[in-house]
Specification:
The protein is α/β, with parallel strands linked by helices. The chain has 2 domains: 6-248, Dihydropteroate synthase-like (TIM Barrel, Alpha-Beta Barrel), CATH 3.20.20; 256-347, Sulfite Reductase Hemoprotein, domain 1 (2-Layer Sandwich). The chain has 11 helices and 15 strands. It has helices at residues 35-48, 60-71, 85-93, 109-122, 144-161, 176-189, 204-220, 235-248, 271-281, 301-306, 336-347, and strands at residues 6-9, 12-15, 21-25, 52-56, 77-81, 98-101, 125-131, 167-172, 194-196, 226-228, 256-260, 290-295, 310-315, 318-323, 326-332. The strands form 3 sheets. Strands 3-4-5-6-7-8-9-10 form an 8-stranded parallel beta barrel, surrounded by 6 helices. Strands 11-12-13-14-15 form a 5-stranded mixed beta sheet. α3 (85-93) packs parallel to α4 (109-122) and α6 (176-189) runs parallel beside α7 (204-220). The protein is elongated and about 70 Å long. The two termini are 30 Å apart.
């Protein structure tokens, strides 16, 4: 996106002329019996715009599970490693295309060198990921933004001296100003791809606001190549929020875009229920670029329908379905979702 250097994860490139990449992190530990459902959910998230997903790795069993998931899906996976450098080595041996290490807890320098050497042999990438809450002890007393940058550049130097440069760097804080200042300083010093995020950002509303402010300000300045909107909530919300930030800034186009009215005293159609139903089912359409409008009355409904691929608006139990800006058919509310999905399916 903005960096001069690029990083490669499997066949996916980050930085340079590549588009902004959207990430999330799996929100629970995965056991062997969970693998099929995890793979199916990742496929649905891919439809929403997911490019990369990170998994916590706590032991060798997690490495085995992650390896099996990667063998079944084309989305690049990232092994998130803390404390035990041997787990990073094992993940790389198991063909996980990227590992994340935290300089605050990965241990002495020689352990990082071993990881970089193994990653080089494996053709894998490494993310140097610092959080303001887990900085190396030697930086205690420094301003956290400066400490994160100082630690990151140290670990970049270790990598380069090892002959390794397939790197992504991330500096995250729950403090917005700290996040912005750290990444501005980092971008002035290095050419590597930068992953952006506000850590511990809160629930959907809190995170959407905080992440939009911090990430939006950085991206507008040409800083950032991949993002994660951290939400205490669903992975779907994280991916959709990331896509919406990217679209709002004009950095990404396409994908599934939903327009829905907030309702007022004039509404005669339950847009909230319809929106939930559409969001639950829209991942049935892989790699589909479309805008869907869900409107609550006939005031703005027809106008929004003109610029949407598909639209629904209603009066009581009657729903009007639009296709490519023109009224397609009048249907009963109980059939609205099935008819909408059928029209989209027939258009594929």
């Amino acid at each position: 996106m903005f960096s001069k250097k690029t990083a490669k994860i499997k066949d996916l490139e980050i930085g340079g002329s590549s588009p902004l990449r959207i990430q999330t992190m799996w929100d629970r530990r995965v056991f062997p019996e969970d693998i099929p459902s995890v793979v199916e959910k990742l496929k649905r998230l891919r439809v929403l715009g997911l490019d990369i997903v990170r998994f916590s790795v706590l032991d060798e069993n997690d490495v085995e599970v992650l390896s099996e998931i990667q063998s079944r899906i084309d989305i690049p996976l990232v092994a998130d490693i803390h404390f035990d450098y041997k787990l990073a080595l094992s993940a790389l041996d198991h063909k996980i295309p990227k590992v994340r290490i935290n300089p605050g807890n990965i241990g002495p320098e020689w352990k990082s060198r071993e990881i970089y050497k193994k990653a080089s042999d494996a053709g894998a990438a490494v993310r140097i990921g610092l959080n303001s809450g887990s900085l190396p002890l030697k930086f205690k007393g420094m301003k956290k933004a400066d400490a994160m940058v100082e630690s990151a550049t140290e670990y970049i130097d270790i990598a380069e001296k090892t002959g390794f440069d397939n790197l992504v760097i991330s500096l995250k804080s729950s403090d917005l100003d700290e996040t912005v200042k750290a990444n501005e300083k980092l971008a002035s010093l290095v050419d590597y791809p930068i992953h952006l995020g506000v850590t511990e950002a809160g629930g959907v509303v809190e995170s959407a606001v905080r992440s939009t402010w911090a990430l939006g300000n950085l991206l507008k300045k040409g800083i950032g190549d991949t993002i994660r909107v951290s939400i205490t909530g669903s992975l779907e919300d994280e991916v959709v929020a990331g896509m919406e930030i990217a679209r709002a800034l004009g950095l990404l186009n396409g994908g599934i875009r939903i327009v829905s009215c907030p309702r007022c005293g004039r509404h005669v159609f339950d847009t909230d229920a319809m929106l939930r139903e559409v969001k639950e089912n829209i991942t049935l359409f892989p790699k589909k670029d479309m805008t869907i409008a869900i409107m609550g009355c006939q005031v703005n409904g027809p106008g929004e329908a003109e610029s949407a691929d598909y639209a629904v608006t209603g009066i009581g139990n009657s729903v009007f379905l639009y296709k490519r800006g023109k009224l397609y058919e009048k249907i009963e509310r109980k059939n609205a979702l099935s008819e909408l999905l059928k029209v989209i399916e027939d258009d594929r």
